[in-house]
Design brief:
31% of the residues lie in helices and 28% in strands. By secondary structure, the protein is α/β, with parallel strands linked by helices. It has two domains: 142 residues, D-Maltodextrin-Binding Protein, domain 2; 90 residues, D-Maltodextrin-Binding Protein, domain 2, CATH 3.40.190.10. The protein has a five-stranded mixed beta sheet. A five-stranded mixed beta sheet has the order 11-10-12-9-13, covered by helices on one side. A two-stranded antiparallel ribbon has the order 1-2. Strand 1 and strand 2 form a beta hairpin. It is globular and about 55 Å long. The two termini are 27 Å apart.
Length: 253
Amino acid sequence: MISSLAMIMCSGFISLHTAYAQPLKFGFGDTETYPRKWKENGEYVGVYIDIIKEVILRSGIDIDLEPYPHERLLQYLEDGKLDGAIGLYKNKEREQYAVYVDIPIAWSSMRIFVKKEDLSSITGLNDLSGKVIGKIRGVSFNKDLEKAIEEGQFTIEETATYEQSIKKLLAGRIDVLIAPNFSTQYLLREMGVSEEISLLPLYFEPVRPVYILFSKPSIITDKMGMFEKMIDVLTDMEYEKTFEEIQRNFDFH
């Protein structure tokens, strides 16, 4: 848990007296995707974690941040069990139960990975028809690909982690993996299999923005005031290029 009331700063703890009496309960997807969020010594670290820390310091809003499986995260937002989340794409379904702070905190590009020996056999998106596609459980794609999935053009094989999907790709249990570009390439290097799996030179969707959002059904005192304060803080961070600075701390551009 990350809270403004217990943040490690340099050599000790500091206590911040926030301007809001009630802390926000925020969540994020527990799938490890470097450099966004991953576990180190049992604790999550990364770009998203540092962004929330900066928001806490600038806003005076107390935020308790916890990881959740992706589908449970979305369900808790829809049910109002969480006040908000960090690191989610915007889509019409989520906009039914969430309000986005409309300032991107990061950008993400989903790409297609295959075993190196299959690289020449896929030259266009039409070649994916009939293939078994690996994806992380609960992750959404653009509307065209989601429609193709609904129409049965592909078989979807879901896993809980990208590492599991990579192992399935190597074992031939899936034909392709759709996953975040930089995070997946980092993981391939960490697993020592970057020479066995290749990135297809195909773009099936544009780079998409990632946001902080608030749950509409959640009940919390002065939610609108917190939302407006969050807009002000993120606007300042965007103008000051704080998001880029945080990303550079993890050698990520």
